[in-house]
Amino acid sequence: MKHAAPNTHVIALINYFTLLPLVYFIPDLIAPFIGANKLIHVAVVLALIVPIISYLVMPIAVKMLTRKTA
């Protein structure tokens, strides 16, 4: 059994629509807990967003988009 790879454009759209709310809301949510240091703020935001996309969203999306071919 072969699996057809998901369309690259669909994966890009999923990334876009998933990253949009994460990049918009997470920085404001963690701002009260992080000091005024911009570098630490960006590092913490990235440390939260990248695993969410890499280990949660994309595996689910690829599993849903992958279809079996005979």
Plain-language structure description:
With 70 residues, the protein is mainly alpha-helical. It has one domain. 73% of the residues lie in helices and 9% in strands. The chain has two helices and two strands; from the N terminus they run βααβ. It has helices at residues 8-30, 38-65, and strands at 2-4, 67-69. A two-stranded antiparallel ribbon has the order 1-2. It is elongated, with a radius of gyration of 16 Å. The termini are close together. The chain crosses the membrane at residues 12-34, 40-62. Keywords: Membrane, Transmembrane, Transmembrane helix.
Average residue pLDDT: 90
Poorly predicted ranges (pLDDT <50, ≥5 residues)? none
* CA distance, first residue to last residue: 6 Å
Number of domains: 1
Write the layout of secondary structure elements.
Layout: E1 2-4, H1 8-30, H2 38-65, E2 67-69
Helix pairs in contact: 1-2
Q: Which features would summarize this protein structure in a list?
A:
70 residues; mainly alpha; two-stranded antiparallel sheet; 2 helices; 73% helix; elongated; transmembrane
Concise structural overview:
The protein is mainly alpha-helical and about 70 residues long. The chain has one domain.
